């Protein structure tokens, strides 16, 4: 349901809708089309010619990139064949069946309702979908602090996305000599041998856990 969707996970179009209805206590009930004998007049009503139309513009900005980086990402998104095809599906509407879309785009099916196209960029909620040619640069930026796998993934989750991004971050961190040398080690517990008793019943022990 749209009205219970997390604001951060919603695409910009739904974010604007959710912000508009925040001041109302609404109850939404589904009604199938076969039971709607008459269309809702207000949803079909167009303004009269010459009548002023009130417009309200609400913008929600989560991702902060420099203008130079935004331009670079816009050009790379436009040149990326996979993202160009994904953009067409987002703008024209998703089919009813996953098998009806090209195989390279089926990986986006699970979160299709979070994808949107705005200002020349594809977004997944508040995160920008990064084109293939820019992913290595983004990985280097995320990894430059050598914060380890988990913190790097959390950092990426705030602003950027591509399919299997967590796997790429994990692979890059595991192949980094600095991360491996300074990362937390998990040493095995040393063996603690007991001194063998000299006679029977010299040492008595009890299992207190069962």
What does this structure look like?
The chain is of the alpha+beta class and 210 residues long. It folds into 2 domains: 2-42, no CATH class; 67-182, Endonuclease III, domain 1, CATH 1.10.340.70. Helices cover 34% and strands 6% of the residues. The protein has 8 helices and 4 strands. The protein has helices spanning 12-20, 41-44, 67-79, 81-92, 135-143, 149-157, 165-174, 177-182; strands at residues 115-118, 121-124, 127-129, 160-161. Strands 1-2-3-4 form a 4-stranded mixed β-sheet. Strand 2 (121-124) and strand 3 (127-129) form a beta hairpin. The model has no long low-confidence stretch (mean pLDDT 81).
Please specify the SSE layout and strand pairing:
Elements: H1 12-20, H2 41-44, H3 67-79, H4 81-92, E1 115-118, E2 121-124, E3 127-129, H5 135-143, H6 149-157, E4 160-161, H7 165-174, H8 177-182
Parallel strand pairs: 3-4
Antiparallel strand pairs: 1-2, 2-3
Helix pairs in contact: 6-7
In short:
With 210 residues, the chain is of the alpha+beta class.
